[in-house]
Amino acid sequence: MKNIVFTVLTWILLTGPTFANDRDAAAFEAIDTDKDGKVTLKEFQAFYKTVFQIKDKNGDGVLDEAEFNNPDAFDFADKNKDGKIDPAEDRALRAHHFRQLDANRDGHLTLEEWLAD
Ligand SMILES: [Ca+2]
Ligand SMILES: [Ca+2]
Ligand SMILES: [Ca+2]
């Protein structure tokens, strides 16, 4: 399990995450920690909290533009326009992302929803 998460996270970091390209079946499995085939917002946030910590290379608790590594989402995520993404801004971004992916709005993501565009 640890290895899967590590592999997925490494891949996300190497390829540079966008809303589209960090979504595949392996990522879904890694995020679905209780393996019930559904990803809840809680599981989703826990996964991206880990992503946030790994991306925070200088360990100052926020992500600058280089650490965040996603120019398209950066301006949207940086609500207070201080040029950094703090954990609350990151959680808000992920909650937004989660709502976008939850096509039938039942509060969890299936693999189908995860893979859909
Ligand atoms: Ca689950
Ligand atoms: Ca900010
Ligand atoms: Ca759903």
Q: Can you put this structure into words, describing what you see?
A:
- This protein has 117 residues and is mainly α.
- A two-stranded antiparallel sheet has the order 1-2.
- Mean pLDDT is 88; it is low at 16-20.
- α1 (2-15) crosses α2 (25-31) and α3 packs across α6.
- Helix content is 57%, strand content 3%.
- The two termini are 27 Å apart.
- It has one domain: Recoverin, domain 1, CATH 1.10.238.10.
- It is built from seven helices and two strands.
- The structure holds calcium ion (CA) (3 copies).
- One calcium ion is lined by residues 32, 34, 36, 38-40, 43.
User: Would you identify the regions where 5 or more consecutive residues have pLDDT less than 50?
Assistant: 16-20
The CATH architecture name reads Orthogonal Bundle
- Structural class category: mainly alpha
Which value, in Å, is the CA radius of gyration?
14 Å
Instruction: Specify the CATH homologous superfamily.
Output: EF-hand
Helices and strands, in N-to-C order? HHEHHHHEH
N- to C-terminal distance? 27 Å
Q: In percent, how much strand structure appears in the residues?
A: under 5%
Topology diagram in text:
Elements: H1 2-15, H2 25-31, E1 39-40, H3 41-55, H4 65-68, H5 71-77, H6 87-101, E2 108-109, H7 111-115
Helix pairs in contact: 1-2, 3-6
Bound molecules: calcium ion (3 copies).
